[in-house]
Design brief:
The structure is a single chain. The protein contains 10 helices and no strands. The termini are far apart. By secondary structure, it is mostly helical. The radius of gyration is 42 Å and the shape is rod-shaped. Helix 2 packs antiparallel against helix 3, helix 2 runs parallel beside helix 4 and helix 5 packs antiparallel against helix 6.
């Protein structure tokens, strides 16, 4: 019987020795867990900052998400009632922090998309130039050529950068430059017609003065020439007034100037 009692006592002592409380209080465990989550946040934000595939706005947004995840994780750790819940909150928090970092698409792909966007913008601008009735053909040709030149420069700028933000900046600058290559005439069609008619009138007036002062012409010859000039002037003015675009006004004026 004594042997049984001794064995029982030894077993109780052995079982008691198996229980050992943590050397850290629950408060300390929470503090350690928060520090690990904080450190994970610092590391992930460092990775985000150095990621060349992300734009400044994307980096800003992702780092904000990291900060929010860190805060939520710390709140969960603080609310934990035991060591296991502290560990679980720490693990979940770090996983969320790491998932907040999402790298962008490959730089080569971003460059390809950026160039395509530039080409489309240029196409739209050149269409507007072509359709502008206030511009003559030479002006349209010159403006479209400047657009093409700006596209080449923009593509070179895009090729010369290796960061997402650099690509975005190059595209923004290029779009502004290309858009500014299109300059409608400062004179609307009515004003262009009036200016052309005034020039024709001035020319007719000058020629009429020459006829009137020409001592080699008799009155009948002068009258015939005055009538011819007036007829030509009326024809030119009619053509100018019917013109529906700057090039037609210019052509009508030039032909009229020869006739007069």
């Amino acid at each position: 019987a004594q042997g049984v009692l001794d064995a029982q006592n030894d077993g109780v002592e052995t079982i008691k020795s198996e229980y050992s409380t943590s050397t850290l209080s629950l408060l300390d465990q929470k503090q350690n867990a928060k520090e690990k989550v904080h450190q994970a946040g610092v590391e992930v934000k460092g990775e985000i900052t150095s990621d060349q595939t992300l734009s400044n706005d994307e980096k800003f947004d992702q780092k904000n998400k990291v900060d929010q995840s860190v805060k939520l994780a710390k709140d969960s750790i603080e609310e934990a009632k035991d060591a296991q819940r502290v560990i679980d909150a720490q693990t979940t928090g770090i996983n969320h922090v790491r998932s907040d970092y999402q790298s962008g698409s490959a730089i080569v792909e971003q460059k390809k998309l950026a160039k395509a966007k530039i080409v489309q913008v240029a196409k739209d601008i050149k269409t507007r130039i072509t359709a502008d009735v206030t511009l003559v053909d030479l002006e349209k040709t010159a403006q479209r050529a400047r657009v093409d030149s700006s596209v080449v420069d923009a593509k070179d700028e895009i090729d010369g950068t290796n960061t997402a933000q650099g690509i975005i900046d190059a595209v923004s600058a290029a779009i502004l430059t290309i858009s500014n290559e299109y300059q409608p005439s400062s004179d609307n069609l009515d004003k262009q017609r009036n200016l052309a008619e005034e020039k024709i009138s001035d020319k007719v007036g000058n020629i009429s003065d020459l006829i009137d002062k020409d001592l080699t012409l008799n009155d009948r010859a002068k009258s015939l020439q005055f009538a011819a000039i007036t007829l030509a002037e009326n024809e030119v003015v009619r053509n100018i007034s019917k013109a529906t675009n700057a090039q037609s006004i210019k052509t009508s004026f030039e032909k009229g100037a020869v006739l007069v």
